[in-house]
Every structure is written in structure tokens, then in C-alpha cells.
């Protein structure tokens, strides 16, 4: 018994610390699930994981009180439904740890404007003539604070976020050079897109292309999206090429190898219409999400439980953060 506990304690200590933030930005779709969330859930055993809802980051672009609160709850429900296990992962809300904004301030005072002007997200916004608020301009520094305040070893992000991790590393180094060794340098864990999930028009599934299949839509919404998948105009009796078919590309996410092989044969032999293929896909999707949907409903009917999960997560995160902030304030010189 004692041996087991010792082993667990030791093993627990050996796990690397993983941290990631998710922006609460509305309805998630099948592309989000297979492109990111799933891998994320798969990592929760391997690492000492913390995942937080980046609501401070969201208000750089969303300043509607009702919508923000709803999005925060929704993203918590989505992740819990998709399998994020609060027993394994410390799940919390960024705004419950306001110390990150204090740390971001210390970092701001070490950061130059030209350095932040080189950030891709900022350059994109400028190129589109968007008005950039100071919060959005400072986005990478707040993100650096999120990561460094927790001494994270690895940060799983999509390839588009890699520059942000470089900003966090640079900022840690700047602080260490100025005030003495304080932060470790985090590593990015770039999630391979296991599948580039195509949208209903064949382009990458993305909210901005309006070609998504919602993960937690109603049966009707999902059906509507599936039936709109773009195909060529072959007749049911025609032979078809599965490898250029948008419906088949989506079947690949849901079918087991054998079933996929059978379907491939039906495509190449002719006799399978696109309508039938879509109906099969719809069933696969609905079967797949049924247990997740049930879990989501269970949590949605008990929002206090969700609030408790987030509050417990924040409490746990605070233990680490409070210790770290003591050292940081000492090193900056505001502790007298
Ligand atoms: N920028 C991330 C995104 O848009 C969200 C985020 C905020 C984050 N802070 C973070 C991710 C810290 C990882 C670590 O998805």
C-alpha cells in the first residue's frame, strides 16, 4: 500500500506540467474536435495538466456581457462533454487568477512596442485595417504571463500559435536577465492536425468559411449541414472516386477500418448515391456524439457543479500562483 502511494507520489512529480488556454468564442464544430480537442483530451493522462478558459483574452474582441458569460459556460460544458476529466485536469477560468494581469504589467515594462509590432496576429489585424485596442496589441504578453506564472513545461498549441510561445520564452529570458533567474522556458507542443477536417464545401472546416458541422447542434442542424455537403453531379449508379469526395473524407473520421474499406468498394463499384452516403454519415455523426451530448446535458442541468469544478480548479491553481507571485514581487522589488 505504502509502496503504491510512494510510487504515485514519485510518478506524479515526474510528470511534466502542461498548460493550455482556450478562448471562449462560441459554438464548436467537428473540425475543432478532431483537429484539437481530441488530442488535448488524449494528453491528460501523460501530463500534469492545467487547462483554463481564456476569458481575459476573449474580451480583447468581445465586449458583450451576456455573450461572454454564455460563451464561458458553453466552452466549459463542451470540454467536459468531450472528455476533459476534472479529476485529472485542473480546469479553471483565467479571470479567477487576476495575478496574471499583474505579471503582464511587469512584463509590459520590459517589452518594447516594436517587439510587439512584429506579432503575426497584430500584423494581420493591421493589414486588414482593423482598429487594434491596447489589450489586443498586448495579447502575447498576457499569454506569456499565463504560461510563466505556472512554470509550465509544455504548451500544446496549433501551429498558428507557435509564435506566441516564442514570445513567452523571450519574455522569460528578458525578465531573468533583468531581475535574476525566475522563470523556466516553456516548450511548445505543436499538435499535428491528425486530420485536416474538411468543411461541407471541401475547404478546411472553419467558422470563418461558414462551412462547419456543429458538434453539439440539434439533430436538425447537423442534418442540414450534412445534406449540404458539396459533391459532383454523378448519378447513384456511377462509379465514384472516394478520394475526391467530401462526404467520404468525413466518413474517415468516424468509420472503423473494415467499414471504411467496404464503403470504399461501394464507391468504386458504383451503385451508391451521394444522398445515401450522406445519410450514412449523418447516422455515424449522431451515434458518435450521443454519449458526449448526454454528458453535456448532464452538466448543463447542473451548472452549479460546473461552477464548483471551475472554483476548485482556481483554488488549486492559486496555490502555485501565490508562491510564484511572492518570488516575482521580491525580485521586482515591490516587497518591502
Ligand atoms: N491564444 C490561445 C488561443 O487563441 C489561448 C490562450 C491564452 C493560451 N493564453 C494561453 C493558450 C496560454 C496556451 C497557453 O487558442
Which short descriptors sum up this protein?
336 residues; two-stranded parallel sheet; 15 helices; 5 strands; elongated; binds tryptophan
Shape: elongated
User: Which spans have pLDDT < 50 for at least 5 consecutive residues?
Assistant: none
The strand count comes to 5
Distance between the termini: 47 Å
Tell me what you see in this structure.
- By secondary structure, this protein is mostly helical.
- The chain has 15 helices and 5 strands.
- The protein has helices at residues 2-14, 30-42, 55-58, 65-82, 99-108, 113-117, 120-127, 134-137, 139-148, 162-179, 219-227, 246-254, 257-269, 274-300, 303-332; strands at residues 17-22, 48-53, 89-93, 154-157, 187-190.
- The strands form 2 sheets. A 3-stranded parallel beta sheet has the order 1-2-3.
- Helix 2 links the parallel strand 1 and strand 2.
- The protein is elongated.
- It binds tryptophan (TRP).
- Residues 19-23, 54, 57, 143, 146-147, 155, 157, 161, 164 line the site of tryptophan.
Amino acid at each position: 500500500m505504502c509502496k503504491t502511494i510512494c510510487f504515485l507520489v514519485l510518478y506524479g512529480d515526474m510528470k511534466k506540467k502542461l498548460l493550455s488556454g482556450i478562448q471562449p468564442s462560441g459554438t464548436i464544430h467537428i473540425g475543432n474536435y478532431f483537429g484539437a480537442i481530441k488530442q488535448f483530451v488524449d494528453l491528460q493522462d501523460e501530463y500534469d495538466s492545467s487547462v483554463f478558459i481564456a476569458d481575459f483574452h476573449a474580451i480583447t474582441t468581445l465586449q458583450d456581457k451576456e455573450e461572454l458569460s454564455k460563451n464561458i459556460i458553453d466552452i466549459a460544458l463542451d470540454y467536459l462533454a468531450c472528455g476533459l476529466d476534472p479529476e485529472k485536469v485542473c480546469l479553471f477560468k483565467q479571470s479567477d487568477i487576476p495575478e496574471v494581469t499583474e505579471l503582464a504589467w511587469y512584463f509590459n515594462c520590459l517589452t518594447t512596442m516594436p517587439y510587439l509590432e512584429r506579432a503575426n496576429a497584430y500584423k494581420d489585424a493591421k493589414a486588414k485595417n482593423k482598429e487594434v485596442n491596447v489589450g489586443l496589441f498586448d495579447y502575447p504578453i498576457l499569454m506569456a504571463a499565463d504560461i510563466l506564472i505556472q512554470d509550465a513545461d509544455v504548451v500544446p498549441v496549433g501551429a498558428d500559435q507557435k509564435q506566441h510561445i516564442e514570445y513567452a520564452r523571450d519574455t522569460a529570458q528578458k525578465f531573468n536577465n533583468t531581475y535574476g533567474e525566475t522563470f523556466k522556458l516553456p516548450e511548445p507542443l505543436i499538435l499535428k492536425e491528425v486530420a485536416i477536417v474538411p468543411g461541407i464545401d471541401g475547404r478546411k472546416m472553419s467558422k470563418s468559411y461558414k462551412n462547419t458541422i456543429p458538434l453539439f447542434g440539434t439533430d436538425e442542424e447537423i442534418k442540414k449541414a450534412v445534406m449540404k455537403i458539396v459533391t459532383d453531379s454523378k448519378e447513384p449508379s456511377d462509379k465514384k472516386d472516394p478520394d475526391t469526395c467530401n462526404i467520404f473524407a468525413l466518413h474517415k473520421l468516424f468509420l472503423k477500418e473494415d467499414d471504411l474499406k467496404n464503403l470504399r468498394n461501394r464507391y468504386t463499384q458504383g451503385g451508391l448515391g451521394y444522398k445515401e452516403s450522406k445519410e450514412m454519415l449523418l447516422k455515424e455523426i449522431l451515434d458518435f456524439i450521443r454519449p458526449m451530448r448526454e454528458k453535456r446535458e448532464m452538466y448543463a442541468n447542473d451548472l452549479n457543479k460546473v461552477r464548483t469544478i471551475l472554483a476548485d480548479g482556481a483554488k488549486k491553481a492559486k496555490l502555485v500562483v501565490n508562491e510564484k507571485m511572492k518570488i516575482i514581487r521580491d525580485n521586482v522589488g515591490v516587497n518591502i
